[in-house]
Amino acid sequence: CLHKLLPSLLVAVSSALFGFFSFLNLQVVNGMEIYSMKIDSKVTSRFAHNVITSRAVNRGNVSKEVFFDVELPKTAFITNFSMTIDGVTYPGTIKEKEAAKKQYEKAVSRGQTAGLVKASGRKTEKFTVSVNIKAASKVTFELSYEELLKRQFGKYEMFIKVKPKQLVKDFEIEVDIFEPQGITELEAEGTFITNELQNTIKKTFSGKKGHISFKPTLAQQRRCASCSESVLDGDFTVRYDVKRTTPDNLQIVNGYFVHFFAPTNLPKLSKNIIFVLDTSGSMSGREIEQTKEAMLKILDDIKEDDFFNFILFDSEISTWKETLIKATPENLDEARKFVRQISAQGLTNLHGGLMRGIDILNAAHEENLVPKRSASIIIMLTDGQPNVGVSNTQEIEKAVKKAIDGRYTLYNLGFGSGVDYGFLERMALENKGLARRIYPDSDTALQLQGFYDEVSNPMLIDVELNYPENEISDLTTNNFKHFYDGSEIVVAGRFVDSNQNHLCVDVRGEGAHDALSYTTQQGAEQTAQAFQEQQYIFGEYIERLWAYLTIEQLLEKRITATGEEKENLTAQALALSLKYKFVTPLTSMVVTKPEENGNEERIADKPTEGHAIFHFGVSFLTTFFPSAASPLYHTYASLPTWYTIDGDPHFIISVPQKKDAICFNINENPGMILNLINDPVTGITVNGELIGDKRPNSDAKIQNSYFGKLGIANKHLDVKLTVTPESITIENGDEKTGFTWLDSVTLQQAGLTLIINRKKNLVLSMGSGASFVVVLHQVWKKHPLHQDFLGLYTLKSDKLSEQTHGLLGQFFRPIDFTILEIHPGSDPKKPDATMIVKNNELTVTRGWQKDYRRDPTHGVDIPCWFVHDNGAGLIDGIHTDYIVSSLF
To answer: Residue ranges of the VIT domain (predicted)?
Structure first.
């Protein structure tokens, strides 16, 4: 995957899928003046074409570097980018990802950062490019992207995140909307809008046209009258809806059509909903309390005609009731009492929880306990990965798909960064649902409730929009399990005869009381009459809408496809991406930028949801990982944020916001004990004792050392765990229990859960929900130098408090750094640079360390910036501050 090639001179611009507008943020070096920023959007029939333009001038006497940062919605496809410097334009070109990759493979070895586009938030991804410009020179950046606006809760939404970081002489947001059906409402608001700024938002709409503009003066941008700080820092949102005199609207232009379906005033279907909730130990604390808060609010919204139940899964499976229960006031009160007493402990039997929920739905339908005309939904929430019962994700997917058999919709909510999101997404898509990330934050309960609100009002089931097969080719998805109130179904297609100007559509669906069935038709002349306002139209908008929607759905189908089917889907999506110049996960944009030693090519590469980097929770892994056949391997290999101590020990710290890593070594003698993690709030500490080789290496200036003993303690539980390559000992008060690595054990006691996987690893969850994996690294017994050693992996470090410290614990909080002045080092393959981190200026070297998550035997080389001298300047204090006298 292109996104893995972090060190590179090339940068790839690709796209993802969500939201609508952009976060504009132009960072400036001293001497640079950004004198103009403009966001121009034209929306025609829900399809948006957006152009972001920024202009800067170097007011200094020497060359300066200027950065252009834009946060795009994940649902957007970039279509163009260019830089114009002193009248010379440097355009971006879109190519197949593999072809673009070959252009910069040589540059990768030079150790510079690649990736113009990175995941940056819940709904956005950041596009960044920088360029040096000479004194008195001007530069213009222009970025274009397109997307189809989705309708939710009865409105289309454009989201703009504004943060220019300085006063801008000419700052403007301008939105023109044209809807043939007519606009019924239009609103705009900003989180940063003060009373002084309120009148700068201009809004007008009449008939088919709407206009929004926001153009604050320099004085209005100031946070205070005498300061230069800008008040423009926050979210700017535009919402609107269209007139609906009929259930649908059909538009035909130049051989393509789009069909919008959103009937109103239908009676709501009753729903049968199963909540399948993860209550394993990792959900303890804030996560389980927020889940309970959300469930209590959801119970307030459940209609009396609905049926529902709760399934809880940890090491065991428990249910509130044995069957679906009608949502009477008495039953809802009882359900609230049940939710309030939910607690978290044990492991994660995800398969058992889902299968129990499906069985209950099946039984309810077979026994006619629920109305025939009703919508059946399963909502599953988990924060981890299956590690007890059936834990192979492929087996779980097959079992769930077979049990549901197309009858119900499955929605999977992944809590935090510890989930295997790809697994959750595949399983949901195979069962006509979708997956959604839930972010651990103060608004987690609102996120859960917000998702429920999206699916809480089904109006139709089994919706089909049928078109004449002999007239239409290349049709997008035209059958849908559910239609929800406030949403919209969109179908697009291409005519066999490009001159055809009329279409007849047969619409069918099942409603609350009876079937919905009617025929609608439209002629191109009616569409043409509606589109006489040419200034609102951009290019062949319906053709591009069709291409956008087709690519989006082909990429989604690829997620669950295999073999030849996946190859065909990939080929189709790639061909369309190249034809319409969309930056998708299959294409890259090559951006040429001028430098003093000649032009450089950089590549922008679109991140995908499964590889997004999140700032919530971190993990710490060391030395050795289980085989790919082990269920735990999938946990290790999929977590995006990680820290390693590898072997000697070499520390690797991932820095998600940079999509990069920092590494350093600790050179100490065998017998020394290092404090790795210390959390005074939860009472958890982790210390590691070093061991060396069997005999010193006379040729080495510094001797190898490894972790030969780990001490993990929770003083609140009065529990201590001592782990060596030979044995595992648990002390709980005066009681002591011992095991060896030859044992296979599952143990739960006094807030502690322990699983020993014979000769491989142990999984430990304690107290706050913080979870650790200790792995055994075994070497050949007759090896002349090396001996067995241990590794530690933190699965749920976000369960530790903000006061956590230690040699590794200090990095569980976000860390940022800046790399400057990259230049050749003593090794031609490893350039040196200056790193600014924690207000320190360090000399660092681009190098590689081993990551054993993907290849437990040989490891994979991970590029990182190496900090010399035992991490001096990076770690707090000096490394000897972390030496402790005993394991506990």
So the answer is: 18-147
